[in-house]
Amino acid sequence: MDALTGLSDAEAVRLLADHGRNELPEPRRPSLPRRAARLLADPLSILLLLAGLVTLVVLGEVPEGAAILAILVVNVVIGVSQEVRADQAVRALRTLTAPMAKVRRGGVVRRIPAGEVVPGDVVEVAAGDRVPADARVVEASSVAIAAVPESMAAAVTTALALGSQRMARLGVIVRRLSAIQALGATTVIASEKTGTLTTGRLTVADHVEIAGADLWRAAVRCNDARDGLGDAVDVALLAASADHGIRPDDPRLATRPFDAGTRSMAVVTEGPVLTVKGAPEVVLARCVPCGGHRSAG
Prior knowledge:
Layout: H1 9-19, H2 32-40, H3 43-58, H4 62-96, E1 100-105, E2 108-113, E3 122-124, H5 152-169, H6 177-185, H7 215-221, H8 232-243, E4 252-259, E5 264-269, E6 273-278, H9 280-285, E7 288-290, E8 293-295
C-alpha cells in the first residue's frame, strides 16, 4: 500500500468485512420491565404503592385505593415513555454528530464516517481534528513537543480546580474538571434565535486587493483545504479562488502550520516565495512600506 494513494475501494471493503466497524459496541438498552422496575423503586413510588395497598386492603376503601394505584401506574407509564423517547433522541443526535475522518483511498482524499476506517487506511489529520483510530505517523508538518514538564499536570489540575470553585461561587456546579478547560477555550458560540448551532460554513463576501498582488494565488498557496474538506476559512478561500480561476498547483518547499499563538500560517513555494496568512494585525506588522502601500507575501 502506497502512502500517497492509500487503499483501493476493494481493499477497504474487504478489510471492513474482515475487521468490522471502527467503533465501540453500544451498551445494551434496558428493557421496558427493567425501566418500570427502576421507576417503581423510587421512594415516592414506593410510598404511593404502600398507601394504595393500605387504603385498598386494610381500610377497604376501594375507590380511593384504586385511584392511588392508578396514579402510580400513570406515573410509571409516563416515565417509561419519556425515557424511551429520550433514548431515541440521543441515538438520533449521535447519528447527526457521528465523527468523520479524512482518508486517502485510490489517491483521492475522502471524508467518511470514522466507523468505516479500516487497518491500513492513510488518515489525514489537521489541527483541531479528532484522531479516528490508532495510527502511525507517516508524514507531519502538526513540530511536536519532545517532552512535557513534570509539573504540567499538577499546574493544570490546580488551575482547573480554582476555576471550578470560582464557578461554584457563581452558582454553577461543574461535574468534571475538563469542562472548565473546554469552557475557557470557547470564544464564540453562534446560534439562531431558536438556539440551533450553525453549521460553520463560510463564504467570501468581499475582498480588498492591492494592485500587482496576486491575492487569490496567495490564498491557494497558504491553504490546507482540499476537495472541500478542511478548516471552514480555508474551504471558503479555496472556493473563492476557484471562482477566479485559481487552483492549487504550486508544490510546497516548507510549511509552518497555523498556530494559535502566532495566529498565522506560512508556506514557502518555488521561487522561493513566502506566503503568510493570519490575523490582520499579525500579518500587517510583518509588512514593509512599498511605494506608499504595505504589502504582504
